[in-house]
Amino acid sequence: MESASYRDQITPENIRNVCILAHVDHGKTSVADSLLSLNGLVSKRNVGSTRFLDDRQDEQLRGITMKSSAVFLTDVLTKQEGVEDTTPVILNLVDTPGHIDFSTEVTAAVRICDGAIIVVDVVEGVCSQTKEAIKQAYDEKLRMILLVNKIDRLVVDLRQEPKDMFNSILLVIEDCNAYLASLYHLDLSTQESSNEIFNEKPDLFFAPETGNVIFASAIDGWGFTLRHIAQMYLKVINGEDEDSLTKKLWDFDCFVSFKDKQIKRGAILMNKANLFVQLVTSTLHHVYTNIVINRDVSNIEMIIKKLDLKTIPSYGLHNDFRMKARTILEAWKPLCKVLLLQCYLSLPSPLHISNERIDYLINSEHYSSSIELNKHIENNKLALKKCSPDGPVIAYMSKTFAVNKNLSCKNNNRTVYPKPRSEINLNKDKQNFLKTENIGADEKAEESDGSKTEQVLTELSLIEKDDVEIIALSRIFSGQIRPGQELYLLNSTFDLIEYSLSENKEDYLKKCDSVKKITVTSLYLLLGREYRLVNCISAGYVCGIAGLKDVICRTATLCSALYTTPIIEQSAMEPIVCNVISPVHAKHLSQLREGLFLLQQSDSCVKVILNEAGEFLLLTAGDVHLEKCLEDLRRKFALVEFTISPPIYSLRETVSQENENETVFSSSSINLSETCILGIKITALPLPQQIIEVIKAHYALLKMIQEHQMPSVVDIWARCESNDLHSSTDKIFKDELIRTSITRLKLRFNDAFSNCNNLWNNLRSENIWRIGNIKNNINLLINCVSDYTCNIFNTPNECDKRIFLDNFIVNAFNMCCNAGPVCEEPLMNCAFIINTLHLSGDLDSSTSRRPEQANHLIQSLYACFREAFLKQNPSLMEPILATNIQTDAQGLGKIYSEVHKRYGKVVEALNLNEERKVFTVKAQIPAVESKEFANDIRKISSGGANPSLQFSHYELVGADPPKPGAAEDSDEEVDNFVRARKLKNLVRRRKGLAIEDDQVVVHAEKQRTLKK
Ligand SMILES: Nc1nc2c(ncn2[C@@H]2O[C@H](COP(=O)(O)OP(=O)(O)OP(=O)(O)O)[C@@H](O)[C@H]2O)c(=O)[nH]1
Ligand SMILES: [Mg+2]
Known about the structure:
Helix content: 25-40%
Shape: globular
Protein name: Tr-type G domain-containing protein
Low-confidence stretches: 193-200, 410-463, 711-727, 999-1012
GO cellular component, one term: cytosol
GO molecular function: GTP binding; GTPase activity; ribosome binding
Bound molecules: guanosine-5'-triphosphate, magnesium ion
Keywords: GTP-binding, Nucleotide-binding
GO biological process, one term: cytosolic ribosome assembly
Number of helices: 35
């Protein structure tokens, strides 16, 4: 077990927690390889080809990363490398996958880091997942470095001239900045986040002259910032210092006059190559053209001299010209060193967490109205800010994963620490430590690339179920954790307000399933493929925590005291692909169940559901993710044979209005007691898009208002305040910011209502009773009862006898939204309007408390909601997947026909290159029809196109039953109807519900003719 002595000597000031984000295949893992070479985990020769962190067999086979992996690296930066003093640095690096199926893994990575390296392939440019990566880092308030990768390809593959190389690079930087600007403006327009980030605006964008842009080729191991180039040319250019030359390198009007070696202006007007082209792209162009393309040995010595390389690198040892170029360029500006330096200089240490990030992490707005809790919240914020080992424990578990216990290195022989570097003046203790910890680092570097890789992979694949240990990838924000320590595990639903207001805390904890007590069994430093057992980890580190036996949670906060604000959960992608999984032999059922449990524990994007029919439903994020899960089940968790059904997709139910001027409603008379009858009328309507947009944009605020309007909480709040039970939301929220937001929200609703037609433009924000409880399925309950003022902005009038119905109506509404009457799938974009709510007779005050009466009431209301829905032309919505496919002109037609065959549509076909006729086809296809789509497209394009499908939205399938006269309508409409009926019956059959006749005979005559 490791003593913490080395880590003890490094303060959090010198720690950097950094993730690498990018679109698929842009080179993240290759960049990580380069950094790993610092510690000898990968030999320099094999950077880019080892892909050390892709340690799964399927990752190596497919060539894509499927999970986030963290690795703990240490190195020392010296004065020569650009820091003021010799500085030991710890880098916790997290490589992430780029494939859309694994975006939950990216979400997990960004939370535990303070900075992100955004990698962009300069040839492909900014792609959909690049934007997603930037957005995630921006939302999490991480500082970013842009790494423009694969610059070698501009010369070697595209044969671009230096000027075009510059344009390609510029385009990437501008695209990233344009996207950042759009995020920034969106933030400004909602104004819901604090102003701090806007004050720091200059740091938000990528500006090469500030050092947050690295130009690189990960595969060739080189990289630099403008400052590095400035340092190099300072000796030969007159009249400039390092700062001024760095700035001028990114001033496109500057150029160097080689005659007098001075920098001049006017490059744009004179149409001259600018300084960047002259000093940067021309140099790279020269090296690659001479060595790799022309294979010209005669120039190499000259190149080495020009690059100011004092020692001649061992380029001569390589016969391969690519390797020669690589050796020279790597010796010139090694990417690993440049990247480490820039992480140290441009990204914050855990001590420099911004107030804005702290407020975001604990959602401090949520607590801003609580005077009682203020002291605790402030203490929490202070603990996060101080990042001290002496503070209370606050850690965030961002994902769980399974490891082979045998692979954790319990003795030091299996660990790799940085090579001691003779020139560094470390203190004696550190030197000794490095020596003892560095056993076999060199041999390991060699081993880890070839035979060793094989060995590790085999080890993984032979894992025994008992050897599986579930580890939580965690970040310690405050305090210190040791094995054996007892901690509270709070999941994101833990409500500190409710806890603090509960009268009997013990009772509350017993009832509340959002808090658990766990004992930390072991702690690990994560070393990529291995896990190093340690006896203590302090604030500021990324680590692995074990001790989660029987706990399934996606994310959680670990803390030593219960008055801790849980760190908010990031919204992650919901799994959309669903398959039934069953054992081949019935006797293996329990093993499969255990395996599925472990799978769910180890992968936060997997859900396993046992349905009413007793089948296990396995929900995953996409085809590739499903295959990874099946591989894990087969080899690690279940070790039994199983079968898997074709995918089942989750549908949505909605309504469409036939005749806008006519309202249909369901009415019901419900006996509340022998003497009292409730009369209720409900209308279901499609929710207009404008209103959906307002709800989506303010979902968090609306949810908070709703939570505070729950009678029990309101009650308690009111007692805390001034016995005023008729408080409006404005009174409940003391915080000025929230109150202003609520006022603005009401205005937005009023605007949206008045922009709609007919019935809608008579409504006001005061008519909104409830928002449906599923975030992505927006549904609305509207109160149009003239004499009953109940809405989400005001607590109801206590004197009105109907107030007790509020909970029942809201519950029945939510029940109906969770499972609609067509095929028990969730509703989407529906509004239910309560037109009448009328009590006749005397209401006995105990009525609603009798369980059978309460049950009768809620079931009757639920039935009434369902009837209203069925009366308004119910329809189904299906998930639509979006894809981008690159193709040449010949493939274009085939792709169109493949998309149409699957009931999809081509949204856009962009001509990327006029000369070569390269197109990007943006298409959408129903998820239900997406089976084997990627494979079919790959075949069509002879392997050239490799589309990845991404969930886009839900879309109406078609009305079911058909509109009157549908039989005479277009073929397309009939197709829609037939598909809708087929989908509906498929779902109903799966759920064991009654099915209408499958045989749909529309256009009966046509069918007869066809038969002939
Ligand atoms: N020419 C060239 N190829 C590169 C460079 N960097 C990476 N590659 C290649 O690009 C491919 C993808 O690299 P990876 O490092 O696996 O990319 P990734 O971003 O980790 O991919 P995912 O994790 O699957 O999203 C590999 O074949 C690399 O060898 C580079 O600088 N130049
Ligand atoms: Mg990768």
